[in-house]
């Protein structure tokens, strides 16, 4: 794609594997272009350019993160760095007037995130985390059914999983199992999605209490590699009404990305909520008014399969939305959209609550 003045010019700092997907997304989105890549060594940055088939003549290659955030032609930075480095480099980027798209988990705790977001706010730049599934049109369709049409009634049960079974090399070398790099482990990497899905299903209302379940597994570095949690809402508007949620995240199980919502009038289920099985379309099952037939030998209805087409990969749609907000700030003087940092902060609060409950021996943590 030829670079134009109208496009938001991205710099990537760090060449982690996830950066390959975002480099592709940046160039697929119609309003953005990859302008620069920086790593701690210029050789690694050059390899990244070559492996991903990028144009050496068009994409600037830097041997440090500083050079990317100080490049006056870079409008925004994408940060796939270890979580322990997010605050420092996001603050540096914001102070250099760069808008910040950061991988999840956003920070090691909410205090760190507040520093990060505070720097973005004080410098008038947009912040967003990399929860790509929120930008898929399927998510928009489910939200319409949940909140606009209220086809499920009042949601009172949520179940969400994100699990994967990586290679033995992962447990030896990956940053996500290193306490000094990504101390939140599976909770931060995979649980972020599960906890975010619970918040999303409750229209970002915070729960009453969070309790880690006693199935926690840690590695020799003390990093969580598998855990579950119970999240409970006691509705202030209905005496005695509750919503219960269970999340499970693990590096020890086969791949799953389940999201199940049950309400007073219907249910919604999908098994690929984070990464759809196909880029071009995604689906979910919806059931309303289900009852057992006589003798309980079957059901009176079958789940309805709802298919939603997708014009671009969800990562490109995320970049497109981020770039749209950046362009509005840059060309129209609009303020940064506070919705995205607020979503990140509430998700981080739940991550912190699960971690605190784990540290307390699975005692309940009240919010």
Please give a quick description of this structure:
With 367 residues, this protein is α/β, with parallel strands linked by helices.
What does this structure look like?
The chain has 367 residues and is of the alpha/beta class. It folds into 2 domains: 8-132 and 314-337, Rossmann fold; 133-312 and 348-366, Dihydrodipicolinate Reductase, domain 2. The protein is 34% helix and 24% strand. It is built from 11 helices and 16 strands. The protein has helices at residues 18-28, 42-51, 65-69, 86-95, 110-122, 137-148, 168-173, 185-189, 191-201, 314-332, 339-359; strands at 8-13, 32-38, 60-62, 76-79, 99-102, 127-129, 155-163, 209-212, 217-218, 224-234, 242-250, 259-263, 266-270, 281-288, 304-309, 365-366. Strands 7, 8, 9, 10, 11, 12, 13, 14, 15 and 16 form a 10-stranded mixed sheet that branches. The chain has a 6-stranded parallel sheet with strand order 3-2-1-4-5-6, sandwiched between helices. Helix 4 (86-95) links the parallel strand 4 and strand 5. Helix 4 (86-95) packs parallel to helix 5 and helix 9 packs across helix 11. It is globular and about 70 Å long. It starts with 7 loop residues before the first strand and ends with a strand. The mean pLDDT is 96.
């Amino acid at each position: 794609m030829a670079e134009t003045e109208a496009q938001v010019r991205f710099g990537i700092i760090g060449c982690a594997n996830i950066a390959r997907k975002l480099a592709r997304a940046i160039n697929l989105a119609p309003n953005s272009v990859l302008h620069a890549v920086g790593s701690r060594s210029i050789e690694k940055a050059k390899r990244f350019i070559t492996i991903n088939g990028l144009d050496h003549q068009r994409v600037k290659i830097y041997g440090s993160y500083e050079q990317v955030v100080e490049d006056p032609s870079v409008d925004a930075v994408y940060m796939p760095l270890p979580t322990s480095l997010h605050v420092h480099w996001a603050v540096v980027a914001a102070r250099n007037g760069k808008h910040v798209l950061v991988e999840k988990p956003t920070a090691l705790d909410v205090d760190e995130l507040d520093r990060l977001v505070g720097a973005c706010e004080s410098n008038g730049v947009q912040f967003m985390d990399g929860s790509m599934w929120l930008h898929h049109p399927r998510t928009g369709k489910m939200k319409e059914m949940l909140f606009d049409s209220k086809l499920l009634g009042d949601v009172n049960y949520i179940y969400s999983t994100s699990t994967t079974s990586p290679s033995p090399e992962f447990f030896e070398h990956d940053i996500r199992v290193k306490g000094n790099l990504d101390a939140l482990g599976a909770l931060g990497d995979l649980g972020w999605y599960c906890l975010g899905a619970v918040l999303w299903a409750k229209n970002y209302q915070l729960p009453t209490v969070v309790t880690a379940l006693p199935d926690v597994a840690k590695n020799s570095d003390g990093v969580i590699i598998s855990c579950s949690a119970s999240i409970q809402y006691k509705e202030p508007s209905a005496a005695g009404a509750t919503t219960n949620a269970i999340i499970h995240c693990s590096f020890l199980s086969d791949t799953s990305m389940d999201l199940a919502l049950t309400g007073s009038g219907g249910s919604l289920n999908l098994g690929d909520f984070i990464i759809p099985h196909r880029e071009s379309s995604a689906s979910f099952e919806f059931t309303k008014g289900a009852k057992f037939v006589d003798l309980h030998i079957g059901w009176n209805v079958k789940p309805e399969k709802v298919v939603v087409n997708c014009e671009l990969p969800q990562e490109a749609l995320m970049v497109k939305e981020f770039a749209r907000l950046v362009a509005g700030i840059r060309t129209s003087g609009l303020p940064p959209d506070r919705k995205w940092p607020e979503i990140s902060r509430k998700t981080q609060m739940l991550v912190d609550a699960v971690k605190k409950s784990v540290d307390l021996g699975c005692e309940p943590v009240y919010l």
